[in-house]
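cron nightly-structures :: item 1 of 1
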Amino acid sequence: MFRYILKRLLALIPVLIGVSFFIFSLLALTPGDPANIVLGADADEAAIKIFRTEQGLDDPFLVRYARFVYRAVAHGDIGRSYATHRPVAAEIVTVFPTTVKLASLAVLTAVVIGIPFGIISAVKQYSVLDSVTMILAMVGVSMPNFWIGVLLILFFSVHLGWFPSSGFDTLSAMILPSVTLASNTLAIITRMTRSSMLEVIKSDYIRTARAKGQRESVVIWKHALGNALIPIITVVGIQFGHLLGGAILTESIFSVPGLGRLMVDGIKSRDYPVVQGGVLYIALMFALINLLVDLLYAWVDPRIRMRYR
């Protein structure tokens, strides 16, 4: 198990290098001069030239990228913000817990609601409840998060006045952003749970468990769900990684001070170090989540656990 974890951690190195090179290239091709945006339209040519020299913007692309990689590996320095002059790592560490909290609440909401509804839809296949659940799941998959967020604000904040339309500092303020971010994931988990359960409940060992006189609740929740969890865990892990990056629009709509909003502000102001650092952070978290999902496979399925041994 230790060797497997070590191999997966070493495999992160080329992944992060590839991601950093891609985002570095993309930002280098983006039109607009950071010096003009940071210093303002009234800045003179001398100030712009000094800024570009200090930030190394006049150097060739490969020189700037090599310097970025060297500082990141040797010193853990992924740059300083053009706007605030603070280390990018410090700014990300400040706001990233909010994004993790938002994504965790969204995944928790999706799992708590999606898995039971998926199980019920599979057990009651072709029933009215199954049809209604699948229609709602299709709507949830099809509707974009930003549209759902606007609708929730209009109805629950403007019309009813139940929840605040911005912020993330109180429990009531967390509800609308979490539900907005969870909507697509909830639909996907519901559909995957139903599909996985339908494959399992028709298996021979399920018929054997029923023939032995096991209660239906034990058959469904222990035997069937236990063997249907692998694809469900995969979807939950992938969706959690997506939510860390997909929270950008949700954080912007609800003014949540997270990593997504920091990156949006960085894109608007051409604050390249902030954008690069944010993308690298999300890529690292996504890779670590995938590793955690693989370890959960071994915990859920004894056959996979034996392979590690």
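cron nightly-structures :: done
Residues 96-308 form a domain with the MetI-like fold fold (CATH 1.10.3720.10).
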